[in-house]
Amino acid sequence: MTRSQARMFAIVSTALVTIAFLGMTIDSHRQFPKLTHEDKMTPQVLAGKDVWHKFNCTNCHTLLGEGAYYAPDLTKIAVQRGPQYLKAFLHDPSQFYDEQKVRRVMPKQNLSDQQIDDLVVFLDWIAHIDTQGWPPRRILVSGAAIPGTNMQQTAQASTSMQPAAPSSDPVAQGQALFNATPPACSACHSISPGVNLAGPSLAGIGTRAAQTIADPSYKGKAKDAAQYIHESIVNPSAHLVPGPTYSAGGRSFMPDNFGKELTPQQIDQLVAYLTTLK
């Protein structure tokens, strides 16, 4: 290649890259309103954003890839945890973990009820942005501390099960769905005995469900283990599992919208998988 040819190659290559970059930039801005659902940006969302910045949440947490990466990414926290959990957690984070055992340092910010409501609405707006699969891995937030178990062990336990390969078997499909995001069941529930995350461990749920139904304290309508698991997914407040980090005021912290977000077939697949956990 001669000097003039090399120069022309560099000029043409630069021009093509510039055109491609400009085209992608224009296309991105064209799609931003739809991807970010900016029409849903209410005054309360903006107020929640102000709370986020006022209390320097980004000094530890990350949103949409921006933040300190010191504490969990909260881009999808609102759909993974639900508003009831978030409000209770923000009132007093120390109730959800033993700091001396899991070494978490989330401070109590003494937020007002209005500030908490605004922040939860803001996080919910963020959670519904189409992030094209970002962040690439789900958050790892442990719930109740486990004697003899450190934070790393708890996190490993929550991610030990990888989504199963595509299959026509309802159990395999349920296992894959359990580990998928959404619905991100494994972000809150472990299937390892004694490993309680944001929700109780589901180890042995196929056996414990029958025991729960037979207990006089059970207030739900299920008649067998499969019905109990189905009820727990679509109506989590029908029966409250004892534990200060699982419910408050007669309502479960588990999101109550899975009956709408999941198809009946998906719910049946989850039930098929969870009933195998003996």
Architecture (CATH level 2) name of the largest domain? Orthogonal Bundle
**What is the residue-mean pLDDT, rounded to a whole number?**
84
Total strands: the figure is 4
Please identify the structural class as seen in this structure.
Answer: mainly alpha
Strand content: under 5%
Order of helices and strands: HHEEHHHHHHHHEEHH
Q: What's the CATH superfamily of the largest domain, by name?
A: Cytochrome c-like domain
Helix proportion: 40-55%
User: Distance N terminus to C terminus?
Assistant: 70 Å
Tally of alpha and pi helices? 12
CATH class of the largest domain: Mainly Alpha
User: How would you sum up the global shape?
Assistant: globular
Quickly count the domains. Answer: 3
Lateral arrangement of strands in the main beta sheet:
1-2
Characterization of the model:
The chain has 278 residues and is an all-alpha fold. The protein folds into three domains: 1-36; 40-130, Cytochrome c-like domain (Cytochrome Bc1 Complex, Chain D, domain 2, Orthogonal Bundle), CATH 1.10.760.10; 151-274, Cytochrome c-like domain (Cytochrome Bc1 Complex, Chain D, domain 2, Orthogonal Bundle). The chain has helices at 3-36, 43-54, 77-81, 83-91, 99-102, 113-127, 151-158, 170-178, 205-214, 225-234, 258-261, 264-274, and strands spanning 62-63, 66-67, 247-248, 251-252. The strands form two sheets. The protein has a two-stranded antiparallel sheet with strand order 1-2. Strands 3-4 form a two-stranded antiparallel sheet. A hairpin with a 2-residue loop joins strand 3 and strand 4 (251-252). The protein is globular and about 85 Å long. The chain starts with a helix and ends with a helix. Mean pLDDT is 84; it is low at 141-165. InterPro entries: Cyt_c-like_dom, Cyt_c-like_dom_sf, Cytochrome_c550/c551-like. Residues 43-127, 169-278 form the Cytochrome c domain. This is Nitric-oxide reductase subunit C. Pfam families: Cytochrom_C. GO terms for molecular function: electron transfer activity; heme binding; metal ion binding.
